[in-house]
Design brief:
The chain is mainly α. 60% of the residues lie in helices and 6% in strands. It contains nine helices and three strands, in the order E-H-H-H-H-H-H-E-H-E-H-H. Helix 1 crosses helix 2 and helix 3 crosses helix 5. The longest helix is centred in the N-terminal third of the chain and has 43 residues. The protein is flat and about 80 Å long.
């Protein structure tokens, strides 16, 4: 996830990215120590034939365990394939589309209001802006298709999850969240700031999930200060390289 040169910085607003509980640990193998241990084991085998028999039996047991594990994996893959086909059929059914439409119609307005610290600030104009896309033809089917594609994507399963690659981010990062976010808890943003190298965290008080809408002036001020620092650091590095 090393950022390309064209990405100068990232600003994450109440990011719904699960932060790992502990920072990733990078383990380095010490080859010389392994060589010493192997030599010591070989010496013990020559001196003690019982120990050598034990090692041989251990290797046989290991091969059997590997074979059993491969059989279990094969069976799991078959079951998983059948499960994915069944899940795909269910998600793309008319019943699933109808249920999605009913859920959004019933809880959509409540979800928007819960995104704000003060639901009374959610005007009809704001609600109309969030519900307008739901009046587009076949929006519910598109949502179901997108969800099915995400869940059934085989390629994504072969890659490490995003939460395990956060430490690879190399560009400056600003994380902004509200202290009363009911959709993505603020403690998750705090964990993200610890996992992403050099990330800055700003918590806006008396604010929910949408600081860029609920606390516009404070949000803009935080972003401006971040960009000023970023530009200032870039100019300083440029001057140092010239001098």
């Amino acid at each position: 996830m090393t950022s390309p040169e064209r990405v100068a910085a990232l600003i994450l607003i109440a990011p719904a990215i699960f932060a790992p509980l502990t920072p990733p640990k990078i383990v380095k193998e010490n080859q010389s120590r392994q060589d010493v241990q192997m030599k010591e084991e070989n010496s013990s085998i020559r001196k003690n034939p019982i120990f050598g028999l034990y090692k041989m039996l251990s290797k046989i047991a290991k091969y059997i365990a590997v074979a059993i594990a491969q059989m279990v994996k094969l069976m799991t893959d078959v079951i998983n394939s059948l499960y994915r086909k069944l899940l795909s059929a269910i998600l793309r059914s008319s019943l699933a589309v109808m249920l999605v439409r009913m859920a959004i119609d019933r809880f959509g307005t409540t979800a928007v209001k819960n995104a704000w610290y003060d639901p009374n600030q959610v005007s009809e104009h704001v609600l109309s802006g969030y519900t307008k896309p739901l009046r587009t033809k076949d929006w519910d089917r598109a949502l179901v298709e997108f969800t099915a594609a995400m869940l059934l994507d085989e390629e994504s399963k072969t890659k490490p999850s995003l939460s395990k690659r956060l430490h690879e981010i190399s560009c400056p990062v600003l994380i902004i969240t509200g202290d009363s976010d009911r959709l993505v808890p603020p403690w998750n943003a705090e964990r993200l700031s610890r996992v992403i190298p050099g990330a800055s965290l700003e918590v806006i008080k008396q604010c929910g999930h949408l600081p860029h809408e609920e606390k516009v002036e404070e949000f803009i001020s935080i972003v401006e200060n971040f960009l000023r620092r970023l530009v200032g650091d870039s100019n300083e590095q440029y001057l140092q390289s010239v001098m």
